[in-house]
């Protein structure tokens, strides 16, 4: 894509303010602020994937990287599961899109198959819903939990801020991946 072909602004590349699903409020309190940031980053990743075919979603960045938008969705489903279900809920169940024997299952398994795309988005949405249910009950951000996989302790606050950081980093990746696919930038 040459600089003459690059289109920015509302020409199909950015959501108009009235169509942007993200909220920009004035949340009251620490938990409300954390939830707004987390929700908006989740919505940003969804915007980056919006309207793409399975082939486009599975398009990888530059070799040797296996990163793709679909891989990021699978990865964030895994991250939501690990931190909300395994760490904060204390569940003992297999991790999503993970294998001890194979590195980067979340990214390597992100192939241009409609069933894989549907599974990834369904898993991600299910994990977001489960996380939001946990957040609805959250009261003490200073409480600590013991991580089942290494025995370390972490505060609820640290885990929630880590989730924002995780999404922020990967939304930056998603922005670059989407721009390479069709020129869409920003937001």
From TrEMBL:
It comes from Actinoplanes octamycinicus. Residues 1-28 are annotated as: Disordered. InterPro entries: DinB/YfiT-like, MST-like. Transmembrane segments: none annotated. This is Putative damage-inducible protein DinB. Pfam families: MST.
């Amino acid at each position: 894509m040459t600089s003459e072909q690059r289109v920015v602004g509302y020409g199909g590349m950015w959501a108009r303010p009235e169509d942007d699903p993200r909220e920009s409020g004035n949340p009251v309190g620490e938990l409300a602020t954390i939830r707004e940031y987390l929700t908006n980053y989740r919505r940003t990743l969804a915007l980056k994937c919006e309207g793409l075919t399975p082939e486009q979603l599975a398009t990888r960045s530059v070799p040797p990287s296996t990163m793709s938008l679909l891989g990021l969705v699978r990865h964030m489903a895994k991250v939501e599961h690990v931190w909300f279900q395994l760490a904060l809920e204390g569940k003992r169940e297999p991790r999503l899109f993970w294998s001890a024997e194979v590195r980067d299952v979340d990214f390597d398994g992100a192939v241009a198959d409609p069933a894989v795309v549907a599974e990834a988005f369904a898993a991600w949405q299910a994990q977001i819903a489960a996380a939001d249910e946990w957040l609805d009950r959250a009261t003490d951000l200073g409480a600590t939990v013991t991580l089942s996989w290494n025995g370390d302790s972490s505060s609820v606050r640290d885990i929630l801020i880590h989730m924002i950081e995780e999404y922020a980093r990967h939304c930056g990746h998603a922005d670059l991946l989407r721009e390479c696919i069709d020129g869409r930038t920003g937001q």
